[in-house]
Fold this protein.
Amino acid sequence: MYQLTKDLFRIPMKAEEVLCSTVYESEALKEFTEEPVKSPKIEEVYGHLKFPKAPTDRPYVYASFITTIDGKIAFQDARDSALLQTNNFLDKTGGNAPFFVFMLQRAAADAVICGAGTMREEPNMTVHLYDVDLEQARIDNGLPPVPLNIISTLDGTDLLFDHTIFKKDEVPKMINTSPVGWEVVREKCQNPIFLVGPYHTMEDVDFVKLDRLLEENKGTIPVVVTGEGAQTDSNILFRILRHMGIERLLIETPVYTHHLMMNGLMDELFLNYACIYVGGGAMSIGLHSKSCTSTDHPHTKMLSIVNAKASPDHWFCFREAVIHGVKGRE
């Protein structure tokens, strides 16, 4: 039986202070049948957060970001993304309504991928539920209190091995890296770890051996090594995660989000839209990465739009289904 965590940071959020309204809802949502977390508080504040069934060979993948009117996901002078909500000074909820919805999106995930870059910008963060009622809702729905924190790094050199995530025993952890990255992690990680792989191709994965390896090393951090050289292979990682029972995978790293968008592996985006402007060279999804072309780029379909009842004009949550492979007008 799962129990509430005792040593993780909390932000109390009263339902009456974070109430939301549905501005738009697509007919497509009626086909979504999976509701991983539900509780009277969630229903009162938001309604029902439902997903389609996960594919059999990978998790259902969605990303969640706080973003501005110009697509920035952090200020340049203070890079904690939560400041986009708390410093939206016209939001009468003080950022609490959008933050609750952001946490709800996290509460629905079995695992969350966070990047080494995000960890460097936020050295004290862990991917858990800041609202205790959302953590309790996970437990009441048969989920562990904290989603699996998957730390993604290509070559290991950008990873902070003294980060808070590595110090919190209540946070379940996994590292995904490349063969080159494994050598760095093996040398520098101070936590007990064990190697899963390396898997250069899908054919390298022996799921019977994988199950035995995971069972024999419970309580130790698995380092899943995929790909070649300093590059990882997301298809192999996702197949392993699905085998492990991960049905919904949340992405909270902008670099990895761009990679998945470019490679047809992103299913949904939740864009928590703060009505503020940042501009300049502040962080955005895909910054410094190769851009899509004018003739080949992902599209989206709006699934829902939600706002805060107490401040309906200054924050919105756009939920969008990603459509890959559109090559021209029909």
Summary: The two ends are 52 Å apart (CA to CA).
